Amino acid sequence: MKTSPLSRLLLLLTALLAAWQVAIGIEGLERVPVLAYTVGFGILLVACLLLIILGLEVLESPVVVIVSTVIPLSLSLGLVWEHLTSWRTAYLTFVLAGFLAILVTRALPFKGRLPVIVLAVVHGISGMVIFLLPSVLAAQGTTRAGFALVGLGGALIGLGGLLLSFLKAGRPILPRETILRILPALLLLMTATFVAGFMLA
Predict the structure, then answer these.
(1) Which of 122, 196, 184, 124 lies closest to 153 in space, CA to CA?
(2) Model pTM greater than 0.85?
């Protein structure tokens, strides 16, 4: 499927938003959240540029599953480190173990559903953290109400990850062409809600 000019434009806008977030949007935070957010948005930036240059067909690469996992893991780690001090060590352990598990199950020829189950668990937990934590904090008044937009971004990243995971597993929820057509808009909307939510926190 050829990448349309509109898709390229949406990907470019997404890359610019991610670059802005890395350069300006994470100032004044502790070292670990800055590193985590930089990795997450940095990978999103590079991914969008690759999609623009190489086309949406690059999503067929097996490396995509591994790389795309880093985004929700790193963003959720940053959120936990900022707002759930007592969970820092436990969640960092989960992030490292989860990434290693995905790396191993994708690099070695595992049969059966294990790779899909591992991916679903890791994506599911990290996605729920990104969705629920900002939403709960905003509802409690711990942060400003706008921070709930980060939670909306978490829901969108979960949706995108789900679509790509089932597509890579050979059991797409939607037709492949439909997924590739809506993905650039989904990425832009996701990034915009993240950026706005962090600005309004």
Answers:
(1) 196
(2) yes
